[in-house]
Task: structure prediction
Amino acid sequence: MSKKIKKRKEIAKILQEPKGMHDVLPVDEMYWSRIREVVSEISEGYGFHRIETPLLEFEELFQKTVGESSDIVAKEMYTLKTRGGDMLALRPEFTASTMRAYLGHSLGRLGQPQRLYTFGPVFRHDNPQAGRYRQFTQANFEIIGGQNDPVYDAHIILLSMRFLDILRIKGVSLRINSIGCRVCQPAYRRQLQNYYKSHEKELCADCVRRAKTNLLRLLDCKEQGCVKLREHAPNILDKLCVTCSAHFKSVIEYLDELKISYVLDNTLVRGLDYYSRTVFECVIEAEGREFGALAGGGRYDYLAEFLGGHATPGVGVAVGIERVIGVIKAQGIVFSSKQKKMVFVVHAGEMAKKKAFRFVEEFRRAGIYVKESLAKDSLKAQLKFADKEKARIALIFGQREIYEGTVIVRDLENSLQETVPLDRIVEEIKKRLK
Ligand SMILES: [Zn+2]
Ligand SMILES: [Zn+2]
Result:
């Protein structure tokens, strides 16, 4: 390999993002700013308060809550040992951190339940595929504390569906299930274990392993043999205890009341240790479940106890922002950005350029939306740029006008122009842009 080619290859490598990481470019700003707007619209409308937790947490936090046997902890966590010898992990999700913060700061004292939301990156060393990254963004909404009232489950599901609806995403289907509680789930697990034991030869290799560590996950395996097997697997909904059954029925009744349609899906288990009772996912029906859920969540009434806290009910949802944006693009949804009325400052000559630079700042401070291309000296080039930016008004700072203490105001819609004294210009522009 020639030196030149080698060098070029080195440069190409250094310009790449690490596998599964991605730059968000200005061309996607429309989507991200709309998403941020919707996050704040939803949080305000449904009464959630922002909480920010660190990117790094003790590895143990996730081992104890998400669970050692979950894919997230077993295979996907980014961990590191600090110089001080602590074992930390880049957060693979938000719920455990939010509960840690809730307990650690006794947030329950401020009133219960607390409605908390987070927005930011999470990290999973997963196999990157369409819409799936190793660093991705989640918006989480959690209701923690108070009663484990089914109305809160419905509240979380409602806002999840509303979130996707505001973004005008079509074909969203709600899948919902109950995975029971400490009373009824163990008996169901035993039944499931017996069922799969008698069919062990038909299971895929992953499921043979999972049967020992994360049994419920056998239900959502995508391998053909396993999919076929689960058709005759015992159904959790038949095995719920009276309390879980009443709780689930009540969640469903709230959804009926809200006219939110849903699919009962007894193969939906979510695979994290902290879930109990309600679990749900918002998926795009047309594309099947291969694209992954846009949002998913459920109830986690035992999570606080995993962290040594008092029994504290909780229910929440995580929205996968990159997946949502992927669907928005695939469905061709465009968000119209309101064209703000803008002035464009143009100069002719070195002295005028200085004056123009100063006035651009004055306009900004007066709340006027202003743009310039001061580094371009040709008047023609500047006016062309003003046109491209769809400016309403061009302000032309000329050499002669500077001496006279004036500026030319040109209406770019009808090309009429007028000379205005500089000390009245801010007022004049405000009037014209109204
Ligand atoms: Zn139960
Ligand atoms: Zn399988």
Observations:
- The pocket of zinc ion (ligand 1) is lined by residues 180-181, 183-184, 240-241, 243-244 (CB under 6 Å).
- The first helix runs from residue 3 to 14.
- The two ends are 64 Å apart (CA to CA).
